[in-house]
Amino acid sequence: MTKQSLVRRQDLAVAVVVASAIADAFPRFSYPPTAAAATVSCAKNYKRLLHQLDLGSGGGAVGFRRDNPWVQSMMTLSPTQIKPPVARTAPLMASHVEEYDAWMRSHPSALSNFEDIIAASKGKQIVMFLDYDGTLSPIVEDPDRAFMSDEMREAVRDLASHFPTAIVSGRCREKVSSFVKLSELYYAGSHGMDIKGPNDEHKHAKTRTKAVLFQPASEFLPMIDEVYKSLVETTKSIPGSRVENNKFCLSVHFRCVDEKKWSSLADKVRSVLKDYPKLRLTHGRKVLEIRPTIKWDKGKALEFLLESLGFDDRNDVLPLYIGDDRTDEDAFKVLRDRRQGFGILVSKIAKETNASFSLREPTEVLRFLRRLVEWKQFSADC
Ligand SMILES: O=P(O)(O)OC[C@H]1O[C@H](O[C@H]2O[C@H](CO)[C@@H](O)[C@H](O)[C@H]2O)[C@H](O)[C@@H](O)[C@@H]1O
């Protein structure tokens, strides 16, 4: 066994131990799922939980005990806080490693399969879509300090000089663009509900976009502001909770909330939302996300941007979307349904996904982006 493969095995073992801990703590939702049941059970559970979470479609009266599905879903979909158990039995670990290996075979590394991705781009214009948190920046406790490294910024800048590049984020557009600090990019903030093109001087030569600006949820602004104020007031008694105003949507963070208080936090959020049937609730990584019930998401934003760039109904385009979160699945699904381009999921653990490839963490995203730039520069020189 090589040193590299040994290291990878050790990483896998850690991921597996954490996943096993989740499965132990919440056996109803095994995670990662068994190889055979992975697709069906994860998808079913997630859909069921989302249905129960969807207050807009009548969530019904439910309590907020630890055994409540809503609270359970906060736990199962936000695994990082769960500590690995002290010891695991070898056979169990081995089986989970096998499951992870099986997942990696169906969602192989975009780095190891770089040549295949490049081969698929032959004669096509690559268009890049990048999620921000957990993709370009590592997940940190304070959302206001989720900075992107200078190396990553440099790589994204180089990337955008070769390919049209968009940032697609749940954050407020102004906030994410202040983190990225590159005016040559397209930005789709608030989960795609706030889209803006690059400044005039940066328009990409191969695109015919004009000043793109699309805000399909603008009528919800007063309601979102009102709910933001209510949530700040209602949740202030929960230590560590935090409400973030993302302009067309809101985030209620529970990364720094004691697990014992999650139920109470969920209760408070729901008590506010019950008066707003036009808002719905979804989950991200240790975050409850509140947004208008309109049929608009990151997938629609991807389609909107492709069309704005003049690539709609064309076969000579290869969109690549890199993201780490549930909300990115809408974009992965669009690519899968269109049979166009590739979704790349950033994850260290097996997850139900519509992505075709995977990368383990933002440092691998950085390597992938750099390779794309190097390949483009090399092919331009030849
Ligand atoms: O679509 P994204 O760009 O991935 O945005 C999704 C949410 O990201 C941020 O929250 C996440 O990152 C934080 C900083 O690392 C972390 O503290 C939090 O637990 C994560 O959920 C952002 O703050 C949210 O508003 C976005 O909705």
From TrEMBL:
InterPro entries: HAD-like_sf (IPR036412), HAD-SF_hydro_IIB (IPR006379), HAD_sf (IPR023214), OTSB-like (IPR044651), Trehalose_PPase (IPR003337). Its cofactor is a divalent metal cation. It holds the Pfam family Trehalose_PPase. Gene3D superfamilies: HAD superfamily/HAD-like. GO terms for biological process: trehalose biosynthetic process. PANTHER family: TREHALOSE 6-PHOSPHATE PHOSPHATASE, TREHALOSE-PHOSPHATE PHOSPHATASE C-RELATED. This is Trehalose 6-phosphate phosphatase. It comes from Canna indica (Indian-shot).
